UniProtKB/TrEMBL annotation:
<protein>
    <submittedName>
        <fullName>DNA-3-methyladenine glycosylase I</fullName>
    </submittedName>
</protein>
<dbReference type="GO" id="GO:0046872">
    <property type="term" value="F:metal ion binding"/>
</dbReference>
<dbReference type="GO" id="GO:0006284">
    <property type="term" value="P:base-excision repair"/>
</dbReference>
<dbReference type="GO" id="GO:0008725">
    <property type="term" value="F:DNA-3-methyladenine glycosylase activity"/>
</dbReference>
<dbReference type="Pfam" id="PF03352">
    <property type="entry name" value="Adenine_glyco"/>
</dbReference>
<dbReference type="InterPro" id="IPR011257">
    <property type="entry name" value="DNA_glycosylase"/>
</dbReference>
<dbReference type="InterPro" id="IPR005019">
    <property type="entry name" value="Adenine_glyco"/>
</dbReference>
<feature type="binding site">
    <location>
        <position position="188"/>
    </location>
    <ligand>
        <name>Zn(2+)</name>
    </ligand>
</feature>
<feature type="binding site">
    <location>
        <position position="31"/>
    </location>
    <ligand>
        <name>Zn(2+)</name>
    </ligand>
</feature>
<keyword id="KW-0862">Zinc</keyword>
<keyword id="KW-0479">Metal-binding</keyword>
<dbReference type="InterPro" id="IPR052891">
    <property type="entry name" value="DNA-3mA_glycosylase"/>
</dbReference>
<feature type="binding site">
    <location>
        <position position="18"/>
    </location>
    <ligand>
        <name>Zn(2+)</name>
    </ligand>
</feature>
<feature type="binding site">
    <location>
        <position position="184"/>
    </location>
    <ligand>
        <name>Zn(2+)</name>
    </ligand>
</feature>
Length: 196
């Protein structure tokens, strides 16, 4: 396998990883410690949905590098706290150069926190209800879907409950990040196929 065929490749320690994880040290750490690890906690799931919403139109690396500041200003992404943010908080956040200063995205996080608190079974439960019955880990990066029928259904369910910035692609990215689907490339040491 060549370096540019989009399959899992050896990292600096010799372990095979997903193609994208080898671009920077930040992505490598995220891939090795978080991406695809099952999340069942509502606060952690809210953070993933919020971060994926911030990514819309940007690279994941941009969001990842601003994550510490985002966690700080959004009170650790605890919905019960974020739901209490006011228009003055929005203005404060728009003035913070460490953040992704998009009014619609910031307002969506606050609105989504309020919507999350209204979910009868919780946010994590709603996301996991949309897990596919069967999912085959991809061979190459080009085999990874941008959206699926399940993520489209999740997007619609979230929107029905008042969430914003949760289109099918954002919903699928959340499912990947939260371990609802295993999109580690075949042979990646972090994926099911890589542990065999």
């Amino acid at each position: 396998m060549t370096d540019d065929d989009g399959t899992a490749r050896p990292g600096p320690d010799g372990l095979r990883r997903c193609h994208w994880a080898l671009a920077t040290d930040d992505l490598l750490r995220y891939h090795d410690t978080e991406w695809g690890v099952a999340i069942t906690d509502d606060d952690a799931m809210f953070e993933r949905i919020s971060l994926e919403g911030f990514q819309a139109g940007l690279s994941w690396l941009t969001v990842l590098r601003k994550r510490a500041a985002l966690r700080e200003v959004f009170a650790g992404f605890v919905p019960a706290v974020v739901a209490g943010f006011t228009p003055a908080d929005v203005e404060r956040l728009l003035g913070d150069a460490r953040l992704i200063r998009s009014r619609p995205k910031i307002e969506a996080v606050i609105g989504n926190a309020r919507a999350a608190l209204e979910l009868p079974g919780g946010l994590a439960k709603l996301v996991w209800e949309h897990a596919p019955e069967h999912h085959t880990p991809p061979e190459r990066i080009t085999d990874v879907a941008a959206a699926t029928p399940e993520s489209t259904a999740l997007s619609k369910a979230l929107k029905r409950h008042g969430f914003r910035f949760v289109g099918p692609t954002t919903a699928y990215a959340t499912m990947q990040a939260a371990g609802v689907v295993d999109d580690h490339l075949r042979g990646c040491f972090r994926g099911e196929a890589g542990r065999g």
